[in-house]
What we know:
Strand order of the largest sheet: 1-2-3-5-4-6-7-8-9
Number of helices: 11
Number of domains: 1
Strand content: 15-25%
Protein name: Acetylxylan esterase
Distance between the termini: 30 Å
CATH class: Alpha Beta
CATH architecture: 3-Layer(aba) Sandwich
Region (Disordered): 121-140
InterPro entries: AB_hydrolase_fold, AXE1_dom, CE7
Oligomer: single chain
Structural class: alpha/beta
GO molecular function: carboxylic ester hydrolase activity
Radius of gyration: 19 Å
Domain Acetyl xylan esterase: 1-316
Order of helices and strands: HHEEEEHEHEHEHHHHEHEH
Low-confidence stretches: none
Mean pLDDT: 95
CATH topology: Rossmann fold
Amino acid sequence: MTLFDMPLADLRGFMPPRAEPERFDEFWQQTLEQARAHPLDPELTPQSGPLDLVDVAEVRFSGYDGHRIGGWFIKPRHSAGPLPCVVRYLGYSMGRGHAHEWLAYPAAGFATLVMDTRGQGGGSGAPGYTPDPEGSRSTEVPGFLTRGLSAPEDYYYRRVYVDAVRAVEAAAVLPGVDATRIVIAGGSQGGGIGLAVAGLAPEMVIGALLDVPSLAYIRRGTEISNVGSRMEIVEYLRTHRRDVEEVFGVLGYFDGMHFAARATAPAWFSVALMDQICPPSTVFAAYNHYAGPKEIRVWPYNGHEGGGGEQEAENLAVARRLAFGDPAAP
């Protein structure tokens, strides 16, 4: 790996113009209104197992178009009073996997809701259990980034972003959760999803932990790096040569820069300067447009793994400061 993007000093001031669709707010307002017309109807199915210090349940709730979205809900077993909750979004191709893989935040005193990303995790080491019932009315490259790309109403991430907002709404009404102390967290695709939630429902969260987020300044990402899931878009445009502007017009409804400009909750970003999957300039584009209080952690010699366990430790400390006023947090 090498440094391939802009120098750090330039990245810190990099704030490209936002080519935002005119109907952006109207589109998302109508989309969420349609979703909320379906009862949220969260349900918990307790799970047995060897984890003596936490309670584990499968959670299901209604996401986009009433589709039932699954996940884990984990909380400390002997907790007193309503707990803060961390809603976690997953990286590309991942499913929610196994409950014992998500114990860091429960061990720090949080309830945790881990949301399956619809359709993903089918062939990964972290299996998912939530299908995507919506078909595509257009051609696509295998994967998810070109699914339904012919129109914003059909695009795959419209459904995912709605699911993610509804996950926060579900967490807020689950037993033992303090609805006034919800934090969202995710890395890569999960960071991009979290950024969308921060812009779509800023009043519902007290903080956002966004590690090496994808789905921001999408067009630039396709132009400066030839690795990662964005290559699905490149492959699509390689054959749909006449559709370039139309495609990026659709993707404009899902670009993290536009959600960042509407987000007001405190946010903690991380970026890795050798990350070719989520290039640094795309992360800084979202960070610099972020409207709320913000900080960014830079990992100079890392790729898409970013800060790894060290970043997770910092995120835990930040979450505790937000939720508990922990003076030991940075």
